[in-house]
Design goal:
20% strand; globular; six-stranded mixed beta sheet; alpha/beta; seven-stranded mixed beta sheet; single chain
């Protein structure tokens, strides 16, 4: 039995799964935690990866490994390959002003036409501008910039030369200086942001190895959302992933160009595109609501389901960490419509779930607005395990929802890519034998909920 490994180096943890290269059957797996924060030393990711590999039984019998990871994180290296400063992660909003500056200097439409996205605080290009303006000594040391998954793949290769850095289209497409249509970097935009050119990882084709010659072949890896789509083999479905962030995405044959910046025209793991809308506030909205009520997540779910749809007019605006979509990095959360009649734990629980889902529903509407077609919605991510989320989602989205069983879908996508690298085939492996069967949820739409949420979401306090 030949084995492949897939890695999910996410914001919260590192997961390693090992599967049979032919059937996709899960053989073993391991996990290790990541530190909390929006600025992290990459060495801590490397330590977590090593721990997760040990927990998964090692890689001695693994032929190929691919790493998928959190997108946009800025990992800066000097000419010797040493990390210059802790990596700024996607959810670090200190570069919000830099994003505004870049948009004004080049133009929102011009950004969308050039690279399929408009700068926001999350993207690497904005973080580079922040670094150049705020830490000039560190900026002067930077010789290369890469992404979290690029850096981990490079570490696995054993190379000590930054010229060996490699990436893939999906992760590169989230930087703000890569055109996924031509497969080339827009170095003019990199220079606009940072003031000078830098060494950038070479971009590897979806099923080509990024490194060979070591103890095992390394696949090109990818961004976490692209890997999740590949892992569930989503086809024509839209995916709503509710983890640390909330993401809504679907495959497309064309790169969307949305000058509002709502839809980012990312690439996927197959050579096509993955239009995506991302919210900063997702699973942790439920964590916060549970903490506020002094209950666990299971009880929060029960409370939400015990309340009537619409929570008797209580509306929860979940901007607890600022927000990315809409682009409100300094906004705070709010509760609207509170009355003596609806001030109950069950209504607050229901409003928190509905508010989080309304933000994601706006993402589905945005995908449809850029002519991204999908025939169903797949629900994945940690918060998708909540029965309240599953049952309430169709009342907000207006379509049937297919909830997949809990699974490491990002790591599964990376493992499937590793198998594809080994196959020497133009088509990815079909791992249907061990595919998860979704549970389908249907429900009537809650009348007026979306309109009430849109109205309430215009009113909040800045930090």
């Amino acid at each position: 039995m030949s084995l492949v490994a897939g890695v999910d180096s996410s914001t919260q943890s590192c997961k390693v799964i090992i599967r049979d290269v032919v059937t996709g059957q899960l053989v073993r797996h391991g996990r290790a935690a990541h530190p909390v924060g929006t600025s992290v030393k990459p060495e801590l990711w490397w330590q977590a990866l090593q721990s997760a590999i040990v927990a998964a039984g090692g890689l001695d019998d693994v032929v190929c490994i691919s790493v998928a990871g959190q997108q946009h994180g800025m990992v800066c290296l000097d000419e010797d390959g040493e990390v210059v400063r802790p990596a700024l992660l996607w959810n670090d909003t200190r570069s919000a002003l830099a994003a505004v500056e870049l948009t004004e200097e080049f133009g929102a439409k011009e950004w969308a036409d050039a690279v399929g996205l408009v700068p926001i605080a999350s993207f690497t290009v904005s973080k580079l501008r922040w670094l150049a303006e705020n830490e000039p000594r560190n900026a002067a040391r930077v010789a290369a910039v890469c992404l979290p998954h690029d850096w981990l793949t490079w570490k696995l290769s054993g190379s000590d030369s930054i010229s060996d850095l490699a990436t893939d289209r999906s992760d590169a497409s989230g930087t703000g200086y890569f055109d996924p249509r031509s497969g080339t970097y827009r170095r003019d935009l990199l220079k606009l942001a940072f003031g000078r050119d830098l060494l950038l990882p070479r971009v590897v084709a979806p099923h080509q190895p990024s490194f060979e010659g070591g103890p095992r072949i390394l696949g090109p890896g990818g961004g976490d959302n692209a890997a999740a789509s590949f892992g569930v083999d989503a086809g024509d479905a839209a995916i709503v992933s509710i983890g640390t962030s909330g993401t809504v995405f679907a495959r497309s044959t064309e790169m969307p160009r949305d000058p509002t910046g709502t839809v980012a025209g990312f690439a996927d793991l197959t050579g096509q595109y993955l239009p995506l809308v991302c919210t900063l506030n997702a699973a942790r909205v439920l964590d916060s609501a549970a903490s506020l009520l002094g209950v666990g997540l299971g009880v929060l779910s029960d409370l939400a389901l015990s309340a009537e749809p619409g929570a008797k007019g209580l509306t929860f605006v979940p901007y607890l960490e600022g927000e990315r979509t809409p682009n409100l990095p300094t906004a705070t959360g709010a509760v609207h419509g509170l009355t003596l009649a609806n001030a109950t734990p069950s209504n607050l629980a229901r409003a928190a779930v509905e508010g989080m889902l309304c933000g994601l529903s706006a993402g589905l509407e945005a995908l449809a607005h850029v002519n991204c077609k999908f025939d169903r919605v797949l629900l994945i991510g940690g918060a998708a395990e909540s029965e309240a989320v599953r049952q309430i989602a169709p009342t907000v989205f207006g379509v049937a929802v297919e909830a997949l069983p809990p699974g490491d879908y990002v790591a599964a996508g990376a493992a499937r890519q590793a198998a594809w690298v080994l196959s020497d085939s133009a088509e990815p492996p079909n791992w249907t034998e061990f595919a998860d069967t979704p549970r389908i949820y249907n429900a009537e739409v809650t009348a007026g909920l979306q309109d009430r949420y849109r109205q309430a979401s215009q009113h909040f306090l800045d930090r």
